[in-house]
Amino acid sequence: xxxxVAAGALTTALTLVTALGPPxxxxxxxxxxxxxxxxxxxxxxxxxxxxxxxxxxGLSTGVEVTAGTxxxxxxxxxxxxxxxxxxxxERQGLLDLGPHQFAExxxxxxxxxxxDVPPGSAVEVDVRGQAEDGQWTEWIPARPGAPALLPExxxxxxxxxxxxxxxxxxxxxxxxxxxxxxxxxxxPRAITPRASYRVFATREGLVGGVTANGHRIVPxxxxxxxxxxxxxxxxxxxxxxxxxxxxxxxxxxxxxxxVGPWNTKDDYWNPPDQREQWKxxxxxxxxxxxxxxxxxxxxxxxxxxxxxxxxxxxxxDGTFHALGLTDNAFVTVDYLWTARAASLGRAxxxxxxxxxxxxxxxxxxxxGGLVGDGAQVExxxxxxxxxxxxxxxxxxxxxRTRPDRYVPAAFIQGAPPVPPC
Length: 421
What we know:
Layout: E1 3-6, E2 9-15, E3 50-52, E4 59-61, E5 63-66, E6 69-72, E7 91-110, E8 113-117, E9 122-130, E10 140-141, E11 148-165, E12 173-177, E13 179-182, E14 195-203, E15 224-226, E16 241-245, E17 251-259, H1 287-294, E18 311-315, H2 317-322, E19 329-335, E20 344-347, E21 355-358, E22 367-371, E23 376-378, E24 381-390, E25 393-402, E26 405-408, E27 412-413
Parallel strand pairs: 14-18, 15-17, 17-22
Antiparallel strand pairs: 1-2, 2-8, 3-13, 4-7, 5-6, 6-12, 7-11, 7-13, 8-12, 9-10, 9-11, 14-19, 15-18, 16-17, 16-19, 20-23, 20-27, 21-22, 24-25, 25-26
Protein name: Secreted protein
Signal peptide: 1-27
Keywords: Signal
């Protein structure tokens, strides 16, 4: 990498390019992606990689763009930005550049960036692909010399910039980004069971703070934090949602809106060969738990802090209380996006609070759990019950989410057709 002098300081200039081979045509066109920053320059399939040069604009959390350059932002009161769940371990900002539809499906994506990176800082690029059923893959890092490889080809691809810096430093700046995408031969995507693990949960609290995706935390909020950006949903969405259950069987299904606790690159729900860090740990074991219980990594997290509890998930106050917890405790977590064959819908209440799961398909039945606004929920079958009016209209259809638990279809958007119960 070359060196440039900026404002009298020696910094590292990013000019990260990896050559890609010609793409291979695959499949039928995908649905038109949601609105977002678009650039229509696409190379024909037989002329090398397809290219996209997105403008530095989009959903921003802790990043400001001035005169075409993206930098970490600072609050008017001088406070530095960073995910609430990390409690100041590092500065982090995200700039979601939105989706782009390529002319041909792609599965290998490189994303060279031009910018200035002071020592200790970093600029990272995350990409994800959308399947024809509308489901997104996890965010996958595209690194210099190691393009992101999607689990299956997709025409619709989204890109996100992450700017990282030690607390107290100015951090990096980004001037431009180019996306180069093609398709390489891979085996068929495996249909695996949904990941489900028992992990230690802590209460996040921090009302008034801001999560990694830009959500301002309110009292009795419904979301969780996981220690990896790979499963971070955009603000207001439940692209990545979990079902958290206590030992008595009470469950809350809520979106992933923050990064933490302890670590930021510990996607422990993935197999070791796919895990971003801590690949020598077994699937389902958070690095913080291994550090706390076994002295793994010297008993420290990825920032060198002494790990004081084995937490693998943080619960917002509303989720914590809905589960009847009075102290931190072990819970069972289902990582809903990991079940490729699952039927998923999205709970929409427009901020009116969570959807209540009932023990029978009746609005007067006992409370059996909840589904947070925006969360994706697993749908097994449908049955007629009491009539309910919700965000999706008026209906007497109820959807079973798990044995003896039902939610009114009037609050569930985008669920595919399911058989009768």
